[in-house]
Prior knowledge:
The protein has helices spanning about 1-25, 40-70, 80-110, 170-185, 200-210, 215-220, and strands at about 35-40, 110-115, 120, 130-135, 135-145, 150-160, 165, 190-195.
Amino acid sequence: MKTFGAIVLFIVVGIIFWGILMAISEANMPVNEYIYLQPGEGGNVILFLYAIFLTICFFAVMNKLWNYMKYKTGRSKEPFEWKSFISGFLLFAGIPHLIFLPLLYFAVHNYIAFTEKEVVVAPFWDLTNHRYSWDAIDAIEAGYEYDEGSYYGDYTLYFIDGRDWNLWEEDADVAAKIVEIDRLAKTLGVEKEFWNMPYSNDLYHWSDESDVSSETLHELFMN
Length: 223
């Protein structure tokens, strides 16, 4: 029972740290009026890993403080050495923090954003943003895969300098935004290609397994 409670507490604290990091990330996103802004997957992975690391550090400190309280109240005769604790913590947490903090900077500045005039891409490993006119999009490729009973969508923008970005996520709100991008791209004459077009029955099955409506899937992957 204690183990289960500890796991639940670990998850709760991890979610709190994850929420704080996501709030920091959103606060660092551009404030312009974009049609759609999508954080990068690489940035989200770093934020997730950093949240886990912060949670581990939190419980390591809490465990040591608990041992210290037991020693001070006489419930434990094992001596508590602050120097060894501090040196061990700095070694355990300090060095990883030096690695994570630069990655955290890249994580909160990793996104793609769309306006009616341009597309702004902030790659993970880049200190500068790249601004593209819609004419700089070489093509959009859309398609899907069916693997082990699940559908996986793909809606990728290819830029003339070789960069690419897959916008697809299995989320109704994201899919609705991608429809807006798709309509704007059609209006501006961006070429759209399909590497695998689903059948109508696939769209209905796909819709049943996700939050995305069959109408949205039809517009994105069959028009």
